[in-house]
Every structure is written in C-alpha cells, then in structure tokens.
C-alpha cells in the first residue's frame, strides 16, 4: 500500500478506514468488521443497512466509543477513537456523540420522568442542568406534554422521541441510532424518524442510523450498505426537477480499488470466482468469465 | 441518584441489608457471648475453689513485733501499693481481704482451777475483721491483757473468745483459764462464746480454726484444736515464744479476674512473689501463697484451645458470611447494571458509576451493620476489640465488593468480550496466582503440623498459621472450581446419548455455568468444611471423654471398700437389676524384694475382667500361663519386669513368677504405678481365705440402688456415668460444643441463602432459556427439573469437596490443637467416624437443594418470561 493511499481525508466528520474488529473466543475468532471504510460529512443524515450479523452494531459501538476496534482508523469529529485515553473517551461521550438504542426501555431510566432523563447527561457531565433546555428539546421533538411522565406512561414512539431528546441534551455533533424504529409500528416510526430528521436539519447534527426499516432507509440522502463487515454499496437520493426522488445505487470502491458487486447482480449473470474486466472510454465493463469462454 | 436506585432495587437492597445485619450481629455478638462464656467458665473454676486457695496470702514470722492495729494497716497499705498493675486490678479492698496475727500448734498444758484435759490445742488469733462476723451468745468480747500468778510466776493473761461448738467439745466455759504453750507459758481466759454470722463467708475459709473446733483421731483418741479470738492489746505480748505468724490476705474481687486479664494476673503474680520475697519489714521474709496462678494456668490452657477452635469456626463463619454478602452485592450490581450502563453511555465517568453503585450498597449496608452492631450490645458479655472489629468486616465487604465489581465491569473499553461467546481461557497470571495459593496452603498445613497452632511462647497464635485453615479452604475451592466441569462434561456426554432432553440440557447448562458459580462454591465449601470440622472435634472430645471415664472407672461401675466386701453383698450386687457381671478384685500394696519398693497388687480373674470390658474402649491382657504350685503366675509393670521370680507379702506371703508385663489396669492402677497382677485365687493359694475389697460391675446399674445394697461405711461407689458427667462438665467444654452447634446452624442458613441468591442472579437469563424451551414444548415440570439439574451438580460437588476438606482439616490441624484439657486425656487421632459428617453434608446439601427447588417451583408465566428475554 503506497503512502498516498493511507492519507486520510481530513474534512470528513466521520472517517473509518480499513476498520477491523475481532472478538476472540475459545479457539475461534469472530471477525465482526473486516476492513470497513466509511466517510460521512458534517451535517449528513446517513442510514446504515445490512443483514443481521453484517457488523452494523459493532460499527455503531465503535463509533460511540463503547467498543475499541482491533485495527484500522476511526475518527469522529477529529478525534481518533483508537488512541483515546479514558478521559478523552469520557469527553467524547459527553460532548461529541449521542446514542439511541433499539430497545425503548434501554434508552431511558424507567424511574425518572422524561425531563429528568433529559437532564441526566448534563448532570452526569457535572454541568448545571437547565430545565429550559430540556423543555426546549422536548418541545422540538414534539413530546413537551410528556415532560413529567415516567417512561412507562408513554407510548413507544414518545419514549423514542424522549430518547432522542436525551441524546441531544449535551449538544453533540453526532447522533448514533441503532434501529431506533425497530420496535415501532410504521406510523410511529414515521414520527420518530421525522424527529431525527428535524434534529439533523435544525441543529445541524450529523446523524447515523442503523436500520432495517425501508421506511427510514428510503428517506435519507445516503444509505450505506454493509455486508460481511465491509461497506458494500451506497445509495444516493436526490430530488429531480419534477420533484421525484431518484435513488441511485453505487458500489463502493475502496482506496486500493476493491469493489463489491451486489449479490443479485452476480446471481443474475452467474458470476463466480472471476470476472473479465474491460476498460472502455467512460466505463469499465464486467463480464462473467464463463460467458467469455463460450464466446471464444 | 443513589436514593432513586435504592428505592427501585429495594428487593436486592433488602437482601444485602439483611445479610449484612445478620453478619454484623453474629460477628459482634458471638465473640461477646463467647467471652462471657469464658468468664463464666473462669468463675466456675474460681467458685469451685475456696477463698484460701484463690486469695493471695502474705505471711511472715515476726522479728520486730507489730503491737498496734495501725502498724498492720500501714503494712497492708504498703503491700497493696507494691502490687503490680494487673494484680491490683483484681484485688478487692473489702471482701475476704483482712490481716491479723495468729499462733499455730500451741498445746494446752493445764487449766487453772480445774483438771486438765489432754490432747487439746489452743491458739490465739487477732483478727480485727472477725469482730463484725461473729455474734456473741455468751459472755463478752475479749478485753485487754492482764496477768495471773501461777505457781509463784506471773504469767501474761490473754482474754479470748471461742466459737460456741468448741465450748462443748473441749469442755470450756466462760471464765475458764487455760495455760498454753510449753515454753513461755501464757494464760488464756475465756470471756465469751460466739457464733458465726455467715458461715458461707469466704473469710472463714482463711480462718477455719476460729470458726470450728477441729477434731482429729490419733489412734483411739480424739485430738481437739481451736483458735480463740483475742484483743488488739494482746499483740504486745504475742512473741516468738509461740509459732506466731502475721498475715495479710489480699482477697480477689468477685468477677475481677476475667479471661482477658488472667494471663497478666499469672505473670504479675510471679513478679509480686519475687518482689515481696526481697522485703522483710523487720521480720522474716514474706511468703506469698495462693493457688490462683495454678488455677488460672490450667484454665488458660483450656482457654487457649477453646479460643483456637473458636477462631477457626468463627473465621469459617465470617468467611461464609462475607461470601454471602458478596453474592448479595453481586445481585444488587446486576440489578443496577442497566441503569449504570446507560449512565456510562450518557457520559458518566468511571468514578461516578462506581461511586453511585457503591453509594447504593453503602446506604443499604451501613444502617444494617450499625443496627446489628447495636443489637449485639443487648447480648450480655464483655466488650472486646473483636466486638468492634467484627461488624466492620461485613460493612467493608458490602461496600468494597460492589465497588471492585463495578470498576472492573464498567472499565472501558470492553476489550475482547462479547456476551454471546463463552469465556476465554484463564490468563496465565490467574493460573499462577491460583497455584501460588494452593502451594502456600500446602506449605502452611505442613508447617502447622510441624509447629502446632498455639505453640508460640506468648500464647498467641502465629497469624500465618492461623490463616492456614482459611487458605486450605480457598485452595480447595479453587481446585473445585477448576475441576468441577470435568466430571460434568463426562455426565453431559453420557446424558447426550440418552433420549431424554432434560438431563442433557440441565447438565450442559451446569457445565457451562461460569462467574456466578464461583461464589456459591466459595460459600458452600467452607460452610460444610467448618461444620464437619466441628463435628469431628466434638466427636473426638466426646470419644476421649468416654475413654477417660472408662479408664477412671474400669467398668460400668466400681465399688471400692476400705475393708473386705462380704460375699453376701457381692451376691446381692449380682442380683441387682441391670447388673450383667460382677468381678471381685482384691487390691492392696506390698513390698517387693528388699529394696523397700512398694507395688500395687491386684488379684483378679483377668478372663472375667476381659469379659467385662468387652464392648468398651478398654482392653485387658489375657490371664498369665499357670506355673507349678506353690508359685503363682504374675503380670508385672515393665519397671518390675527384671524380676523373674519374687516374693510378695500381700494378700499372703507367696512366691510369684513373672509371666508377662502389664501397663496399668483401668480403674485399679495407673500406667505409672508399679503393679503386680495375680490370679484372683492367689490368697487361697497362699493358704488364706479368698476376699475382695473392690467390685467391678458390668451393666446399666442404678447408682442409688448400688449404694443401698453395698451400704458399708468408707465404701466408694463410682459409676461410668458419674465419671463421664464430671469430665464432660469441665468448664468451656459445653461452650465449645454449643458454639459449634450455633455456627453449624448459621452456616446452613447462609448456604441456603447463597443458593437462592445465585439462582436469582441468573433468573433473567434462565427465564429466557426456559421460555424459549417452553415454546418448544417443555412442560412446567420439566422446567423445574431443568433448574434443579442446573444447580444440583455444583451443590453436590461443592458439598463433597467441603466434606473432604472437613475430614482432612482435623488431621492437618490435630497436632496444633490440644484437646486434652476437655477430654481428660490426650486426644490422639480423630475418630474416622463418617456418620455425623455425612449426615451434615447430606443435610446441608438438602437444605441448599431445597432452596433451589423453592426457586424452581416459583413458576413464571411464559409470556412474562418471553418479555424478560427481549430486554437485552
């Protein structure tokens, strides 16, 4: 690998390069991330999708500073996640990231009211907890009416919106959400996602959502697909001049030129083991090797 | 935040609080109660002795006469002033303390105006403290001295008062004047008679001659002696013509000597004895007499053994209590984990997390510990440092354990761990640490055997050696934890081949269990080890006490007469209900050879005696082979073994031929005696009549009936039961045995709690697994059996290891613990009696399994369990 290829792209808000995470067990090693690359710009709203076991949650744990990668580069808001000290890590969790889990119950302490839950991060960080800020956040997320209720007295959607308020409480730069709508029906999902998008637009927070929910993944500007511990595809959406949403799926090309073909593409043309590439004027053609053999 | 968590997890908090409370109460109250029991035992020892044994008495033959009470009081003050501190503490100022002057062995040589009565002794005593202890029934107290003319010589006349009973026995009346002393004869005029106000007053134990007229048989005549009280004025005239002694008695205050200061008192006594021996104060040197040091030394020996045993069982109890508290703390931290993890993700630092979790534990434990500590003060007993230190242990455990656990589990980032994969291989560092512990325990056990536990000179134990039992327990626990999956995996393999799923699933789960399993093992194992150890020690004490009682009596009962026991009496004894056999014995002494050596001669039928002791721990040799008449065959003690034939003078003159040696005969002769055993008909062979002065009886015979049948003066009846009761009644024995019982019960309780808590900690995970299996068709019944099977192997294996350790501990510690003080004999070897230990192991295992069963039958709804399963 030449030095030029390892040069990080400095202006990305979230930058992962060749990220590896290995869980060692008795006799077996589970490689959860095997060289994952990811670039997310400041203020982006990105969905990460992928089949279960593809490494989505591991990625999110690494990004949230709760887990430590085995190798590679992971940088969020200019902080190197691999070389952080305990103090850095604490600062990182207090001021840089906010986290939302899938289970509504895990996001909130069940015996505190919504307002107290929102105030918790500030209190934990040793800052003066301001009630107005909490109320503003709850207002912003449309759950101001639940301020004095316990999580048990709220619906799932309300709980998740309070959870978003909690995640936003310390004015983080990045919000990481692990299947935030996983336990909700479609209508409530819509509300929760709208809340996340609102936070993204109004507060300029970078939002990374890990999701299975097509409702979510189809509404973000960019969807990153992960397969077998690697980023495999990206879907970009833009609104056409006529107002239609145009989604274009891209394969991810890493810095050494590796490319992961979508599985259904490979299936359709029965591509196996090797393909033939041909450089044309404005594109590269990919042909199944066996077809070529027949042609010859 | 801690308050909120405290409120939310009140169940776990209550468990922790309850456990710290009981531990604090037990650890504060038991040492207190034990100290009290030690003191009571000491009280029994001192009460069983008379004041003249326990009190300190300084005696001096006067050189310069002390003529006024003032001088005595000054000396008294000086002697008290010189007391070393520990002694001064236990010496009371009133009570039996007193001083005075007294003459000894003064014969009455005549009476004025009447006929002299021979064989009378009359001594004089000046005892200022006696005045208020007597009541005059005739005449008046003695006045000042005067003089009388006897045969042209002027003699000093003392006024004396005498105890009333002496008046009749010695023929005295008010006005009688006795001439006493052969040289420097004095006259003693009786002015009054008194009675003792309180005959039980210890004062009179020092002055028996003043309170009673002593009667002694000299040949066929009675010899009387009495001591009369005289006035202070007499001091001027009491001089070295008489055997005069001044004495100062320093009385021991009731309850002043305790288990804690006894050693210091013994030490100070030696110091004081040496100090007063150098002083004379104008007379001969003071002689300090007291039986107190000897009494205390014997007591301290028993105490030291008791304390060692109590240290071991209380240490075991403390260890188990701490283990259970750690388990409860673990339950609490498990319950708080979601909240603390959330706090951590939301930006709480490690100190904050640890602080919050620890604060919850502290809020739960501190009031509980204080309450237990306070309640312990209701238990009567002296307050020792252990009372304050004991409750600190559970408090520290309840706070330190969650702190350490939270710090470790919330340490970040979580390297190389994931909940869904099994634990990694143990680190080499951990294995090295475990091997070190096992090695240290073994070395310690070896040293303990070699050196003994309480062998150090100052009486205190070596802390390293005192920790050996705990180290051995820990080592066994570590080995058990390391090795228990192996037999289980074998069982899993066997169960896998069977068709039924429940044993396989249960055993597989048990074999994979980790983390949580360590603590129950650490609790069950010492619990059982301590209980078994206790039962082994009790068993050894009990057995040796029985052996000692057998050796003392020599049979179920023994009748010993000064004179011959008539044949008719023997017949009547034989016919008593319960009597199975009676062996008549003739016992006497004889001189052996010409050296003037005396030996005990026992004539009995050894074959019959063997029959009597069959079934008891005693053994007797076979009768010696016959020898040609007129010689008789004899067994002799080894010291006489050199004599092949010798002449004995009792029961008749005869020639004895040595046919073997014998070391003592239980109940008849000690092993150290020089002993000659002859056939019972030895007297007959010597041409005399057969006779018996001792009967050995086999069978459950009633003591009172036996006494009634024998009914001869000067006959001693001893039964095995009496002897056993006397030996077992030794102070402290019951304390030791009762403490074992209390600790065993407490340990069983803790074992039960430990198992239940361990199950509750894993409840959520188990419920998830069970609910999954229930959806696959597992019945409620099978679910219960699964839970039982999951925990049972661990309980059974831990119990087995505990049983084994409990059986090995006494063997390892035996040379270090001297039980002879309790048993009346040196305890050699612990009985390999598996009955009680097995019963204990089975009991404790059952109790623990019962806990598991109770947990298992507290059924949970499938739906609820499924919901539980989601939350992770």
UniProtKB/TrEMBL annotation, chain A:
GO terms for molecular function: ATP binding; ATP hydrolysis activity; transmembrane transporter activity. Residues 14-253 form the ABC transporter domain. InterPro entries: AAA+_ATPase (IPR003593), ABC_transporter-like_ATP-bd (IPR003439), ABC_transporter-like_CS (IPR017871), ABC_transpr_LolD-like (IPR015854), MacB-like_ATP-bd (IPR017911), P-loop_NTPase (IPR027417). It comes from the Bacteria. One of its GO terms (cellular component) is plasma membrane. PROSITE patterns: ABC_TRANSPORTER_1, ABC_TRANSPORTER_2. CDD domains: ABC_MJ0796_LolCDE_FtsE. Keywords: ATP-binding, Nucleotide-binding, Transport. This is ABC transporter ATP-binding protein.
TrEMBL record, chain B:
PANTHER family: ABC TRANSPORTER PERMEASE YTRF (PTHR30572:SF4), MEMBRANE COMPONENT OF TRANSPORTER-RELATED (PTHR30572). This is Membrane protein. The keyword Membrane applies. One of its GO terms (molecular function) is transmembrane transporter activity. The keyword Transmembrane helix applies. Keywords: Cell membrane, Membrane, Transmembrane, Transmembrane helix. It holds the Pfam family FtsX. Its main location: membrane. It is a multi-pass membrane protein. GO terms for cellular component: plasma membrane. It comes from Planotetraspora thailandica. Residues 744-853 form the ABC3 transporter permease C-terminal domain. InterPro entries: ABC3_permease_C (IPR003838), Macrolide_Exporter_MacB (IPR050250). Belongs to the ABC-4 integral membrane protein family. It is found in: Cell membrane. The chain crosses the membrane at residues 309-332, 353-376, 388-408, 431-448, 468-492, 513-537, 739-764, 791-814, 834-858. It comes from the Bacteria.
């Amino acid at each position: 690998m030449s030095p030029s290829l390892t040069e990080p792209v400095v202006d990305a808000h979230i930058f992962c390069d060749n990220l590896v995470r290995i869980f060692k067990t008795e006799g077996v090693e589970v490689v959860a991330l095997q060289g994952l690359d990811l670039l997310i710009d400041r203020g982006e709203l990105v969905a990460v999708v992928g089949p279960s076991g593809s490494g989505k949650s591991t990625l999110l744990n690494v990004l949230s500073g709760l887990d430590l990668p085995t190798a590679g580069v992971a940088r969020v808001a200019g902080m190197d996640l691999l070389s952080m000290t305990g103090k850095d890590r604490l600062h990182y969790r207090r001021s840089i990231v906010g986290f939302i889990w899938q289970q509504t119950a895990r996001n909130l302490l069940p015996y505190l009211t919504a307002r107290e839950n929102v105030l918790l991060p500030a209190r934990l960080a040793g800052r003066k907890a301001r009630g107005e800020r909490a109320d503003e956040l709850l207002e912003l997320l449309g759950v101001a009416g639940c301020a004095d209720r316990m999580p048990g007295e709220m619906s799932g959607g309300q709980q998740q919106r309070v959870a978003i308020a909690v995640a936003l409480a310390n004015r983080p730069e990045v919000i990481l959400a692990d299947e935030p709508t996983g336990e909700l029906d479609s209508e409530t999902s819509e509300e929760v996602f709208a809340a996340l998008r609102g936070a993204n637009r109004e507060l300029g927070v970078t939002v990374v959502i890990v999701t299975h929910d097509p409702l979510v993944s189809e509404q973000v500007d960019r969807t990153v697909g992960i397969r077998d511990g690697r980023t495999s595809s990206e879907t970009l959406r833009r609104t056409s001049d006529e107002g239609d949403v145009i989604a274009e799926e891209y394969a991810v090309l890493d810095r050494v030129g590796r490319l992961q073909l979508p599985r259904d593409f490979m299936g359709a043309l029965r591509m196996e083991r090797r393909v033939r590439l041909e450089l044309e004027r404005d594109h590269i053609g990919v042909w199944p090797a066996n077809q070529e053999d027949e042609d010859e | 935040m801690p308050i909120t968590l405290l409120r939310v997890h009140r169940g776990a908090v209550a468990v922790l609080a309850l456990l710290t409370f009981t531990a604090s109460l037990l650890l504060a109250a038991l040492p207190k109660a034990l100290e009290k029991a030690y003191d009571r035992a000491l009280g029994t020892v001192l009460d069983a002795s008379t004041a003249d044994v326990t009190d300190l008495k300084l005696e001096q033959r006067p050189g310069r006469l002390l003529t006024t009470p003032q001088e005595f009081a000054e000396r008294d003050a000086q002697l008290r002033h010189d007391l070393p501190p520990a002694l001064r503490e236990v010496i009371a100022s009133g009570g039996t303390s007193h001083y005075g002057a007294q003459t000894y062995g003064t014969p009455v040589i005549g009476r004025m105006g009447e006929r002299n009565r021979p064989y009378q002794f009359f001594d004089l005593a000046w005892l200022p403290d006696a005045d208020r202890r007597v009541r005059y029934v005739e005449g008046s107290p003695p006045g000042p001295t005067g003089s009388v003319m006897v045969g042209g010589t002027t003699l000093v006349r003392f006024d004396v008062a005498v105890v009333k009973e002496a008046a009749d026995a010695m023929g005295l009346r008010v006005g009688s004047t006795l001439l006493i002393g052969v040289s420097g004869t004095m006259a003693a005029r009786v002015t009054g008679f008194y009675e003792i106000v309180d005959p039980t007053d210890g004062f009179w134990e020092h002055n028996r001659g003043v309170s009673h007229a002593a009667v002694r048989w000299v040949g066929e005549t009675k010899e009387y002696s009495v001591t009369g009280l005289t006035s202070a004025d007499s001091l001027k005239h009491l001089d070295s013509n008489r055997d005069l002694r001044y004495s100062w008695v320093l009385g021991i205050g009731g309850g002043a000597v305790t288990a804690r200061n006894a050693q210091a008192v013994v030490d100070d006594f030696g110091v004081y004895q040496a100090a007063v021996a150098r002083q004379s104060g104008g007379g001969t040197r003071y002689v300090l007499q007291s039986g107190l040091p000897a009494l205390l030394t014997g007591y301290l020996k028993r105490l030291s053994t008791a304390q060692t045993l109590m240290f071991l069982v209380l240490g075991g109890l403390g260890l188990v209590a701490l283990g259970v508290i750690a388990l409860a703390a673990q339950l609490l931290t498990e319950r708080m984990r979601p909240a603390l993890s959330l706090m951590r993700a939301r930006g709480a630092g490690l100190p904050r997390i640890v602080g919050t979790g620890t604060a919850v534990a502290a809020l739960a434990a501190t009031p509980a510990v204080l309450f237990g500590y306070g309640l312990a003060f209701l238990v009567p007993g002296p307050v020792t440092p252990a009372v304050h230190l004991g409750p600190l242990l559970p408090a520290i455990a309840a706070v330190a354990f969650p702190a350490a656990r939270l710090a470790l589990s919330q340490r970040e980032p979580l390297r190389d761990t994931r909940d869904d994969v099994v634990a990694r291989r143990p680190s080499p560092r951990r294995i090295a640490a475990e091997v070190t512990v096992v090695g240290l325990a073994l070395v310690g056990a070896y040293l303990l055997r070699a050196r003994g536990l309480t062998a150090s000179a100052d009486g205190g134990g070596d802390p390293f050696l005192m920790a050996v039992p705990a180290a051995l327990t820990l080592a066994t626990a570590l080995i058990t934890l390391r090795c228990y999956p192996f037999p289980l995996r074998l069982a899993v393999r066997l169960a896998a081949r069977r068709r039924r799923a429940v044993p396989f699933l249960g055993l597989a789960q048990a074999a994979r269990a980790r983390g949580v399993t360590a603590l129950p093992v650490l609790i069950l194992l010492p619990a059982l080890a301590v209980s078994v150890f206790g039962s082994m020690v009790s068993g050894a004490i009990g057995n040796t006490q029985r052996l000692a009682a057998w050796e003392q009596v020599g049979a179920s009962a023994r009748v010993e007469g000064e004179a011959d026991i008539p044949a008719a009496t023997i017949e009547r004894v034989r016919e008593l209900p319960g009597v199975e056999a009676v062996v008549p014995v003739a016992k006497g002494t004889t001189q052996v050879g010409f050296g003037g050596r005396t030996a005990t001669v026992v004539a009995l039928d050894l074959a019959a005696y063997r029959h009597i002791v069959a079934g008891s721990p005693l053994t007797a040799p076979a009768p010696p082979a016959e020898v040609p008449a007129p010689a008789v065959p004899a067994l002799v003690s080894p010291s006489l073994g050199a004599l092949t034939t010798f002449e004995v003078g009792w029961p008749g003159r005869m020639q004895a031929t040595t046919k073997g040696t014998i070391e003592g005969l239980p109940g008849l002769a000690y092993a150290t005696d020089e002993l000659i055993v002859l056939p019972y008909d030895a007297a007959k062979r010597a041409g005399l009549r057969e006779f018996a002065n001792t009967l050995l009886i086999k069978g459950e015979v009633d003591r009172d009936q036996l006494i009634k049948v024998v009914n001869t003066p000067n006959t001693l009846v001893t039964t095995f039961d009496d002897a056993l009761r006397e030996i077992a009644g030794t102070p402290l024995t019951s304390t030791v045995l009762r403490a074992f019982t209390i600790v065993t019960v407490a340990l069983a309780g803790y074992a039960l709690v430990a198992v239940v808590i361990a199950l509750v900690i894993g409840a959520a995970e188990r419920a998830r697994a069970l609910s999954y299996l229930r959806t696959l068709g597992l019945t409620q019944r099978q679910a219960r059996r699964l839970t039982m099977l999951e925990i049972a192997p661990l309980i059974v294996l831990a119990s087995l290891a505990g049983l084994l350790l409990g059986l090995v501990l006494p063997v390892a510690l035996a040379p270090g613990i001297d039980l002879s003080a309790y048993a009346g004999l040196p305890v050699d070897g612990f009985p390999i009696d598996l009955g009680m230990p097995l019963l204990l192991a089975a009991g404790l295992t059952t109790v623990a399994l019962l806990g598991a069963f109770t947990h298992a039958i507290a059924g949970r709804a499938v739906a609820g369990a499924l919901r539980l399963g989601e939350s992770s």
